[in-house]
């Protein structure tokens, strides 16, 4: 569970914030950002030694001054449930083990209309019909044992047999 997801879930709920200098703030969380800057409402501020109290309608706390946060247990449970829900929906939406929709059997999509059978390394070299040998195949088209298509696949200026 990430701290920022915990904070965003605890918006509108009561929260206790202790700063590095020892002051504490008790209030309802209004907003938080990526730097853990907080805005609280209906705040009771306590001094570091605990003998003075202030009531504030609203306050802003910079994230790098925070020592720790205390949130209600129900918020932690809500975040755990939300994480489980997201994990289940992402597992349902992932394409593990299956093809990813249209295209070839390897789940690569329809990049080229006729190029569905191009496997690993296919489509390299020059010219030729990519559907015949799969690019860099081991067929007996022309050009030796590792032909790579009807032009031989030998690069520029190579001899053809």
List the helices and strands and how they pair.
Blueprint: H1 3-9, E1 14-19, E2 24-32, E3 38-46, E4 53-61, E5 66-70, H2 73-93, H3 130-133
Antiparallel strand pairs: 1-2, 1-5, 2-3, 3-4
In words, what does this structure look like?
The protein has 161 residues and is an alpha+beta fold. The chain has helices spanning 3-9, 73-93, 130-133, and strands at 14-19, 24-32, 38-46, 53-61, 66-70. It is 20% helix and 24% strand. A five-stranded antiparallel sheet has the order 4-3-2-1-5.
Which quaternary structure do these chains form? single chain
Number of helices: 3
Could you give the count of β-strands?
5
pLDDT < 50 runs, ≥5 residues: none
Radius of gyration: 31 Å
- The average pLDDT score comes to 77
User: Quick one: overall form?
Assistant: elongated
The helix/strand series, from N terminus to C terminus, equals: HEEEEEHH
Structural class: alpha+beta
How much helicity do the residues have? 10-25%
Strand content: 15-25%
Distance N to C terminus: 65 Å
**What summary fits the major beta sheet?**
5 strands, antiparallel
Q: Enumerate the strands of the largest sheet in spatial order, edge to edge or round the barrel.
A: 4-3-2-1-5
Short description, anyone?
The chain is α+β, with helices and mostly antiparallel strands and 161 residues long. It has helices at residues 3-9, 73-93, 130-133, and strands at 14-19, 24-32, 38-46, 53-61, 66-70.
């Amino acid at each position: 569970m990430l701290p920022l997801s915990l904070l965003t879930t605890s918006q509108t709920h009561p929260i206790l914030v202790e700063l590095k200098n020892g002051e504490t703030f008790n209030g309802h969380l209004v907003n938080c950002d990526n730097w853990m800057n907080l805005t609280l409402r209906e705040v009771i501020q306590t001094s570091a030694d605990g003998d003075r109290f202030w009531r504030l309608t609203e306050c802003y706390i910079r994230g790098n001054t925070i020592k720790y946060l205390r949130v209600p247990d129900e918020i932690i449970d809500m975040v755990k449930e939300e994480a489980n829900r997201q994990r289940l929906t992402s597992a349902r939406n992932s394409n593990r083990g299956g093809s990813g929709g249209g295209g070839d059997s390897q789940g690569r999509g329809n990049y080229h209309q006729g190029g569905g059978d191009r496997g690993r390394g296919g489509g390299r070299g020059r010219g030729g019909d990519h559907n015949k040998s799969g690019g860099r195949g081991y067929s007996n088209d022309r050009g030796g044992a590792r032909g790579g298509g009807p032009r031989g696949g030998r690069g520029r200026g190579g001899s053809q047999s």
